[in-house]
Amino acid sequence: MSSLEEKTIATEKIFEGRVISLQVDEVELPNGNKTKRELVKHPGAVAIIALTDDKKLVMVEQYRKALEKTIVEIPAGKLEKGETPDVCAKRELEEETGYDCAKLKLLTSFYTSPGFADEIVHVYLATGLSKKENAAGLDEDEFVNLLELTLDEALHAITEKKIYDAKTIFAVQYIQLQEALKK
């Protein structure tokens, strides 16, 4: 099979924001033809499946402007410049939930929309949770309600479209699979 690589000929920066940047690349296709690709560049993010000792999923309810609605999600956030995913996961868990964890394990990483974006999300499992005194707070433009859901409650929230994003659905299905494997 021949190479499927698209060679970049030129890049035009369109927008540089706080969270993302946008660019248009002119590329040469494997057959020699040329076309343009609109790309979203993102620094990467973490998502945390935080489980309490009584097996409840720690989640946040948050308004998402892009969706014009409030949804329930696992704690998550973007990597800061030079920050490792492990450090980011512990920071985001504390900022969004007030929890610290005794154990943090990387489960997987995945690209969210590889057709037009390079965002990668690193998914962690956090256990041995404890509430932190003087926990770091939310960012000044961040407002969340803290929730703790059983697996059944989380599955119901998916059917009700209260949980409606890929990382959180992955988290709930991961816990569901772990429970099924125990039987």
UniProtKB/TrEMBL annotation:
<feature type="binding site">
    <location>
        <position position="96"/>
    </location>
    <ligand>
        <name>Mg(2+)</name>
    </ligand>
</feature>
<dbReference type="GO" id="GO:0047631">
    <property type="term" value="F:ADP-ribose diphosphatase activity"/>
</dbReference>
<dbReference type="InterPro" id="IPR000086">
    <property type="entry name" value="NUDIX_hydrolase_dom"/>
</dbReference>
<dbReference type="InterPro" id="IPR020084">
    <property type="entry name" value="NUDIX_hydrolase_CS"/>
</dbReference>
<dbReference type="GO" id="GO:0046872">
    <property type="term" value="F:metal ion binding"/>
</dbReference>
<feature type="domain" description="Nudix hydrolase">
    <location>
        <begin position="40"/>
        <end position="171"/>
    </location>
</feature>
<keyword id="KW-0378">Hydrolase</keyword>
<dbReference type="GO" id="GO:0019693">
    <property type="term" value="P:ribose phosphate metabolic process"/>
</dbReference>
<feature type="binding site">
    <location>
        <position position="142"/>
    </location>
    <ligand>
        <name>Mg(2+)</name>
    </ligand>
</feature>
<comment type="subunit">
    <text>Homodimer.</text>
</comment>
<protein>
    <submittedName>
        <fullName>ADP-ribose pyrophosphatase</fullName>
        <ecNumber>3.6.1.13</ecNumber>
    </submittedName>
</protein>
<feature type="short sequence motif" description="Nudix box">
    <location>
        <begin position="77"/>
        <end position="99"/>
    </location>
</feature>
<keyword id="KW-0460">Magnesium</keyword>
<dbReference type="GO" id="GO:0005829">
    <property type="term" value="C:cytosol"/>
</dbReference>
<dbReference type="GO" id="GO:0006753">
    <property type="term" value="P:nucleoside phosphate metabolic process"/>
</dbReference>
<dbReference type="InterPro" id="IPR015797">
    <property type="entry name" value="NUDIX_hydrolase-like_dom_sf"/>
</dbReference>
<keyword id="KW-0479">Metal-binding</keyword>
<dbReference type="InterPro" id="IPR004385">
    <property type="entry name" value="NDP_pyrophosphatase"/>
</dbReference>
<dbReference type="Pfam" id="PF00293">
    <property type="entry name" value="NUDIX"/>
</dbReference>
<feature type="binding site">
    <location>
        <position position="92"/>
    </location>
    <ligand>
        <name>Mg(2+)</name>
    </ligand>
</feature>
<feature type="binding site">
    <location>
        <position position="76"/>
    </location>
    <ligand>
        <name>Mg(2+)</name>
    </ligand>
</feature>
